[in-house]
Amino acid sequence: MINEENSLRVPWGKYYPNGYKLDYPDTSLYNLVEKAAKECPNNIAYNYFGATSNYKTLIEDIEKCAKALKVLDIKKDDVITICMPNTPEALISFYAINKIGGVANMIHPLSAENEIKYYLEVSNSKMLITIDLAWTKVKNIIKDTKVEKTIVLSVKKSMPFILKTLFSLTKERKIEKPIYDINIITWDEFIEKGKEYEKETNVHTKGQDVATILYSGGTTGLAKGIVLTNLNFNAIAIQNLAACPLKPTDKCLSIMPIFHGFGLRYFNTHNVLFRCNCNYITKL
After folding, report:
1. pLDDT at residue 284 in the model
2. How far apart are the first and last CA of the chain?
3. What CATH fold (topology level) applies to the domain 2-6+21-280?
4. Are the C-beta atoms of 53 and 91 separated by less than 8 Å?
5. Half-sphere exposure (CA, 13 Å, Cβ side) for 273?
6. Which residues, including other chains, have CB under 8 Å from residue 216's CB and lie 6 or more apart?
7. Are 223 and 256 within 8 A, CB to CB?
8. Higher confidence at residue 152 or residue 218?
9. pLDDT band for position 270 (cuts 50, 70, 90)
10. 253-256 long-range contacts, Cβ below 8 Å, gap at least 24?
11. Could you tell me if 190 and 170 are in contact, meaning their C-beta atoms sit under 8 angstroms apart?
């Protein structure tokens, strides 16, 4: 455990349940997710357009994704770009990457073509997991990067049946589909590959290991990659838990996107450590 005590005494400190002293777990983001799942396996982890998943299933899905990443030769410290809105697959990918010791490079799926190329190049990404809505832009630049595998999926993947059908009949018809080959595969094919992997997937990284890269707004030039560790996220989660102690039966609404620092931190704090039901909103 990493222990820190604030030596500065402020008037509002008396309202903090634990005073100034907090213990920060020196572990990975995934290990905290796993801990939450063991404590409340049947609690609803997320609600996506009415489709729900409990923590037990979430952990199982993360493991399937982690195995698929290992089959595709993703190693510790390799960078995988997630170009997705708030979908279950984006969250599953994020924690699967963390579980195997990789680095999740989070980018906005509505970024311009040249911006996507820049994010892939500056992060030295080895793999890309992207929403099909971004494929029209991705296809034009992917060959000019070091990305070896591209996983493409739709926001409808985890939707309930009726909504999924309606989406297929309306908005999906306007989306350009990839020509799949050995380097460009669907999410289902990607997960299927994971069945070939039978070894341990959890690398058990520590607090100081890099977890993700987020990007600044680029108001003064090119957007800058901001490297964040496991401890960055774990510390802010513990701080939030101390300041706003929600219960596992509480519900949260997640509107901020996960490629944004606030949105990603929100999920890690409220859904994982509070073990709450998080309701996700995705702009279609």
Report:
1. 40
2. 42
3. Rossmann fold (3.40.50)
4. no
5. 23
6. 223, 224, 226
7. no
8. 152
9. low
10. 253/278, 253/279, 253/281, 254/86, 254/278, 254/279, 254/280, 254/281, 255/281
11. no
